[in-house]
Known about the structure:
Elements: H1 6-21, H2 29-46, H3 51-60
Helix pairs in contact: 1-2, 2-3
Amino acid sequence: MLMAHPAVLANLIEQYDTLRILHAENGGEAVQQRMQDLAYTLCVSTGTRDVDAALVAARHQLPGARPMDDSVLTI
């Protein structure tokens, strides 16, 4: 599987988190589309099908991530 560059993943995470913090899902059509595009790109970049799983996977691929730390996952 191809892996996205950590800088790209960091940028995608930052953009998605910013829109989520601003409650962009309640915003205009263009903003909602951007959020959907970011979610899709994160999923494709990490080989996942769910944006929450994509965010976890992307964060684990960033420099300094602890690969054995699954504390952000819920069971």
